[in-house]
Structure to design on (416 residues):
């Protein structure tokens, strides 16, 4: 590899890798952030004057040291740490030439433009592999590069519906509030970013063994279908379409959420012994001896009778009391935490799932840490999500050897 950030090379997994990141919003940036966390030099390319759409997807916005809002939305901060940011107008011949030169000096190109959009700029895989034969080129779209939906725009919410997730998620149709429900975060985007990360790493490994680059075609819909896991195979094996069960389990009772006096908990009583301990902790041991509820098959059969009784029982104590008593009794349980409770949880703190990074306008920014814990090549937390275009001049000088006059001319003409 050519020039890269030397301080990342020694004790990182990907310090020898350069990634040219032409993506925006979430799926692509999430993939690129994973690679940056693992030590890769990631160069984020954005539109001059505007940048990634998520920079303005607020409030909330990061605040500066005087308490004023910056131009960095929290949404943008979530998926862009560890990157260098440059601005290039790729609709211009000069901008296209900059991207080609950078691609020639890179190992990986990530993009999430509409199908065929980069071809008109000469920045598609077929064009770039002519100048960089061993290039890894990953495209992320809503529906993939082929098929009848290929030219549709892909949105996470729509894909959650199309891919079957929402048919499985939400309260039962026969209960109040029943109906399809999306996830609280953009799971199709996030999981596509994760799968894309794996695919890029696999392609890099293959390139290192054979010298051959390749094209990676990632689609949100493909990912959403794939991640339904056992629910897919339940259907494919039985031919029966699964239904929504909300926070309940179709085969185990009680295996669901309950409201306490001050919050909610999850109780996952997987066998009759755990169920008995649960109702004993609630002061209702007779519920374990009632023949309607004594065994799991009977509890499933009489679910609609038992669950309201258990719900009344659970409301008599606080969340903290229930968690303490059930953990001591050996009944699987857990709280449903709000995010303030999550980030004050001693386990989350011990696992260092919050990191503070220096920021040029805010002084520091607090971000969520990576869940990847590697003993020999730990995650790299070196730079905050960059300001728009903050590294443009440095990247052009260091990698492409542009001089001051060239950079000034490009800036004057709105190319960068």
């Amino acid at each position: 590899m050519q020039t890269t950030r030397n301080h990342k090379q020694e004790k990182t997994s990907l310090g020898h890798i350069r990634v040219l990141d032409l993506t925006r919003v979430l799926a692509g940036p999430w993939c690129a952030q994973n690679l940056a966390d693992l030590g890769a030099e990631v160069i984020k390319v954005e539109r001059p004057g505007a940048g990634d759409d998520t920079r303005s997807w607020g409030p909330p916005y990061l605040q500066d040291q005087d308490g004023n809002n910056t131009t960095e939305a929290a949404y943008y901060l979530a998926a862009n740490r560890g990157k260098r940011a440059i601005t290039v107008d790729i609709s211009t011949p000069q901008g296209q030439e900059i991207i080609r030169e950078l691609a020639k000096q890179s190992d990986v190109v990530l993009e999430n433009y509409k199908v065929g959009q980069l071809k008109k700029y000469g920045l598609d895989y077929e064009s770039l592999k002519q100048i960089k034969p061993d290039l890894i080129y990953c495209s992320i779209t809503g529906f993939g590069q082929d098929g009848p939906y290929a030219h549709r725009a892909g949105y996470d919410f729509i894909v959650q519906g199309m891919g079957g997730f929402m048919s499985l998620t939400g309260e039962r149709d026969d209960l109040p509030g029943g109906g399809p429900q999306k996830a609280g975060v953009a799971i199709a985007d996030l999981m596509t970013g994760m799968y894309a990360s794996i695919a890029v790493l696999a392609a890099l490994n293959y390139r290192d063994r054979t010298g051959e680059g390749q094209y990676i075609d990632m689609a949100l819909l493909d990912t959403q279908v794939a991640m339904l896991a056992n629910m897919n195979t339940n259907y494919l094996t039985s031919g029966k379409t699964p239904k929504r069960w909300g926070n309940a389990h179709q085969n185990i009772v009680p295996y669901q959420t309950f409201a306490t006096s001050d919050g909610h908990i999850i109780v996952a009583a997987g066998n009759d012994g755990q169920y008995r301990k649960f109702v004993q902790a609630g002061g209702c041991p007779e519920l374990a001896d009632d023949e309607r509820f004594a065994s799991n098959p009977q509890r499933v059969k009489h679910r609609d009778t038992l669950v309201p009784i258990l719900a009344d029982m659970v409301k008599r104590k606080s969340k903290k009391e229930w968690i303490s008593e059930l953990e001591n009794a050996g009944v699987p349980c857990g709280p449903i935490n709000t995010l303030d409770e999550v980030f004050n949880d001693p386990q989350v703190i011990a696992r260092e799932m919050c990191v503070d990074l220096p920021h040029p306008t805010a002084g520091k920014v607090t971000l969520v840490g990576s869940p990847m814990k590697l003993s020999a090549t730990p995650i790299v937390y070196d730079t905050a999500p960059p300001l728009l275009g903050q590294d443009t001049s440095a990247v052009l000088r260091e990698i492409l050897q542009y001089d001051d006059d060239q950079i000034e001319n490009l800036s004057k003409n709105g190319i960068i």
